Amino acid sequence: MSVELLDTLMGHEDRVWHAAWSACGRWLATCGGDRTIRIWAPLIPRPRTVTQMVDGVMTKQVHEAPPPSLERWSCVARLKTHLHQRTVRAVAWRHCGRFLVSVAFDASMVLWQRTSDTSNEWTPVIEIEQEGHGAEIKSVAWSPDGSFLATCSRDKRVIVWAFCENPLELEIASDLYGHGQDVKHVAWVDLPAEGESSQCLVSSSYDDTIMVWRLRGDDFECTGVLKGHKSTVWATAALSGSRIASVSDDLSLRIWEPAPSQDLGSPFISKQTISQAHSRPIYSVSHCALPAAIPLDAFVARHAPGQVPPADVVRLGPAIDAAAVGTLAAADDPPQHEGEDVVMGDAGDTGPVAEAPGPASAIIGLVATGAGDNAVGLFAEMDNGTVVPLRRHGRAHSLELNSVAFRPLLRPDLAARIPGLVDPQQVVLATASDDGTIRIWRVSL
Amino acid sequence: MLGGHLVNPNPVVHPVTPRDAGSVAPDVAAAALVGLSAAGRAPGSAALTDASGIVTATEVFEFIRDIKDPEHPFTLEQLRIVRPENVYVLDRGVASGGPARADGTPAPASEVVRSGGPGDDGHCYIRVEFTPTVPHCSLATLIGLCLRKRLERSLGRPIKLDINVTPGSHQTEHNINKQINDKERVAAAFENPSLHPIVEDCIRDSDY
Hints:
Chain A: This is Probable cytosolic iron-sulfur protein assembly protein CIAO1 homolog. The complex is a heterodimer. Chain A is mainly beta. Chain A is built from three helices and 32 strands. Helices cover 4% and strands 49% of the residues of chain A. Chain A has a five-stranded antiparallel β-sheet with strand order 20-21-22-23-26, with no helix packed on it. Chain A has a five-stranded antiparallel β-sheet with strand order 24-27-28-29-25. About 13% of the residues of chain B have low confidence.
């Protein structure tokens, strides 16, 4: 596999806290300590007109512009508002890019609307200042159907806002108390349940737990508390099959899967813990579902035994060579390598644990992590629900990583319908750092 | 300085360790901090690090000893809030600091690096322990912020810094430690218009 740096996006004047792709993958929004939001897309080169003498006559020739490439990006919009007086901590797109929400450390929130479908001009249409949270807002996430917006804060609350487009409104639907401390992150996961909406809200906290919330009647209610992490949980990401990945200050990546029955008292149970995934706190995690699963033997065959990675790329996972096929297949005997600690259903957890998984036969997705050790971690999501470390790419930035985000990978027929989507079948990862830059990477398996 | 009621009205003031022959004179330090040398390191501090620019515990202590206590016109060193043996450094695999050991060797990497890291990955790890003057000291978080701001500004390289209260010196040490090492909480605190000037005031005069 390879991780290739495509471009480094410069422009922010302070650390970049967060990066988020629009649902179609056309645009990347970033925000940070300089209190602005920037929107990026591959540069669209312009045709060149060349004037020269041909047979004594001045002639103009228009050279067609090359197609846009993933290797050259530009900032297409810069959003600034007097309302955000402090760090803008997170941004979230609603679906495919007409609405964007930004949240800040002064507890302000702004809903931005694109002025037209063809331009990249944005107007703040709703500005929330005195309402809602009373301390720094840390995260924001739209529900998959776009009807709700979740935010969370150091005030220990998770607030769910109901969104209406006509008339344009954002009103508090649920004000959720439960976490004992600062809430760091909110995300949605699709978890089907009898007679209920499948949209489930997951909040991560400084209190070391993850709470799960579901809409019951008019209000969101807590349906479970996931314990196991030994310190602050910084973020979660939804994986395939309603599973969740979480990352923490305790240096671990944990996988949770839906509980097989309601008797266990929690909607999710601990599936796997990868300790020491990084050497400093892990701040962000992102998932990418591959449109077509890669059979394990095909993947292994592509990687010759003894392939030596570059010096600053430390391989944590099992060596991808023929000898490992047997180990990966016998997943009840996890591969053990120096510096790696992969435990199935950590016995030290408080809470129910999953049964040992069956053998894995294909890679169905990718998981990326970003941490305070300046590195990106890459993991393969296997068809048996486990996650296998592939690579830790050290020195991805010169300072800590705050956010990692895979560009959404659309099915080819859907991607074809989106104009301006460059190389839609490539796996692209954005990373944002304290160094003030965002980096765009291509991941190839 | 903070006005109003003092948390610790009667601090004990201690004599300070004599400075190294190689330590920086105040006027040189002032010039240095305004215009760092091309190597990003204050001129005159070369005597405190070895020739390869590896950061040492001695250098780190030099930067923090003169930070003012938020309540009193004394330095953190004078109040024994920071001591040379409470600074641990592991820079590019070279360890220094910690209490003096009988065999003269420096503290092992495992005492510096929080956990998990190999320690030789090119990063500069620093761990500073500090002892608040009284167990109930509510200013512990403020001292933690001052230490962090001072070191992040002074060293010419990015650092991985962990600050802890000395074990046993504070009744809620786990809570304090967690707060002062939470990157997001620290960033928000530095942006806080009431905290920001206090921190700047405490570290300003240590720049001379």
